[in-house]
Q: What sequence folds into this?
């Protein structure tokens, strides 16, 4: 039995309590400053108010002020924050993690460097880590609706990180009869897939919003965008030096994300012809990782294009999504350009 | 304006009348011996009884006995038969096509050679063509529900063939404001994707049938199978010497095929726990290309494994589908094996 400390008690981070407790580990769930109510309620009643489920028996809950206590003696730290909390996690949690303790993160996103180079969060953070620090950063990719993880539906995801032997240890700690774990040292490929499935779920949903607005039933347009999203993500994986096979994590994850989730909702509204400001208003300020990653990656591609490291024409769908998000462009799916650049 | 003769007046072949007529070509639609009623009705009323739509004005309809007449002077022949009609097309239509006339086929499937080698139909047929014959065989891949093609919904597919200059001519003949054509000389990759999206739509639907039988709502299991289907198809594309980027045609096509179509239906029934015989009975003898391609490819992989050209362990989902189809196996999705072999 090990001690697993989860930092960030939103729905995805907290859902990791289930496979962790199913394996009999001591599980410590730490809320961030944004999770205060979640932890208060959990301490009082054992209920997770966002997951609307009773946490597994034995999960210990902590407020952020108790972080050091929760981290002491931990064998594994699970990073449970969203991409918007990545920097906060790096600055406020990472330094407090003892050398030799691995981190496994559910955070999805890509970080653009000054020169436009795109790095997965674990790689970008590792580069900034003080010399001599020994905290290996790993991440989770692949399709996983958190509620289904809690309810023991079969779920297959990937743990990625730099050290296969460590990845095997992490799998041994967390896999269950229902939580199936693939392993990959292709951090760039897996994390690119993870980040872009949010970004492109928005893109595929443009066609869904369009048919809803037109009051017609069809599937050819959204399946064409699904294929284009796969093509552009495969190109981005190559650009990031990842392995092409990691596109498999993208395809399954895009499928479920197009069905469910907020990323789809914004795309639907833009597909119905709403301006980005109207769409954001409808979603009343819900933070959207999908929009953030699209804008980040599109800008990075423009920067890389300046010295010929990327060709934005290889990404016509992503470019148009960025125009919708950043420039109030009118919806105009680039059908011909996508086919010509296939 | 050119003359385009479509041989095979099932739903997909006949749907090609729309982009062909939208481009102003003379379109001749020839029914096979199985299509007699369709052609009779079309000649009388102009209606296509299977598509339940009025054929575009000017489409000329022919019974199979009038094949020579319909082929005379044709600039392009579109092969509209299903994979079960491929051999018939090769033996009865191909020999009657004049040298210099290209063929563009909607037929989906792979052909296993004696030694287990898998070839796309156009390649297998070209190999058997008499020396000196000059009939270039091309094919269409990618997501396209035929009804939507008739109704002018945006559709993006790929024409594949050995000669890029010819492919460009074919695109010029058929692309429209709604019918968007990608071009690829990767016949192996595109045709493998096209064939396996049918085969694996059955596989993904196993999880759909399972949740229906259990009366639960979930998406993680089917999205995991969607990812595994993508992985196994990518491996098969490599095995066939295709290009990895052609997996993009698979992903978009699997998405729409899982939503709609008969391939999904058989998988659902097997997912509900029915034996293959019970399932076939429920579908009362509807011919299923998906089951045929799964059995063909699984057998070919076993044959290739004999001399080390393939490793069946790289295809755990396909293997289990084959067990369900060929050996009356009980449903037992190989979750752990899939994750271990990722």
A:
């Amino acid at each position: 039995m090990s001690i697993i400390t989860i930092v960030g008690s939103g729905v995805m981070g907290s859902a990791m309590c289930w496979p962790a407790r199913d394996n009999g580990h001591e599980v410590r769930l730490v809320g961030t400053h944004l999770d205060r109510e979640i932890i208060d309620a959990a301490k009082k009643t054992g209920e997770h108010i966002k997951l609307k489920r009773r946490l597994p028996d034995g999960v210990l809950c902590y407020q952020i002020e108790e972080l050091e206590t929760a981290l002491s003696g931990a064998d594994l730290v699970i990073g449970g924050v969203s991409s918007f909390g990545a920097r906060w996690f790096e600055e406020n949690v990472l330094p407090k993690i003892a050398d030799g303790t691995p981190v496994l993160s559910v955070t999805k996103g890509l970080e653009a460097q000054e020169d436009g180079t795109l790095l997965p969060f674990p790689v970008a953070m590792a580069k900034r880590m003080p010399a001599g620090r020994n905290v290996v950063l790993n991440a989770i990719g692949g399709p996983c609706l958190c509620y289904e993880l809690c309810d023991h539906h079969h779920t297959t995801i990937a743990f990625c990180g730099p050290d296969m032997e460590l990845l095997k240890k992490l799998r041994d700690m967390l896999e269950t009869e229902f939580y199936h774990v693939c392993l990959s040292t292709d951090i760039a490929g897996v994390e690119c897939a993870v980040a872009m499935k949010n970004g492109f779920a928005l893109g595929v949903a443009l066609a869904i919003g369009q048919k809803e607005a037109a009051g017609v039933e069809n599937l050819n347009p959204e399946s064409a965008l699904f294929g284009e999203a796969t093509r552009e993500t495969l190109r981005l994986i190559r650009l990031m030096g990842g392995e092409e096979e990691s596109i498999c994590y993208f395809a399954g994850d895009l499928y479920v994300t197009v069905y469910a989730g907020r990323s789809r909702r914004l795309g639907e509204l833009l597909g119905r012809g709403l301006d980005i400001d109207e769409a954001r208003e409808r979603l009343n300020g819900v933070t959207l990782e999908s929009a953030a990653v699209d804008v980040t990656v599109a800008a990075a591609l423009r920067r890389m294009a300046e010295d010929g490291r990327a060709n934005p024409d290889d990404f016509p769908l992503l470019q148009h999504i960025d125009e919708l998000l950043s420039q109030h462009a009118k919806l105009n799916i680039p059908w011909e350009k996508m086919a010509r650049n296939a």
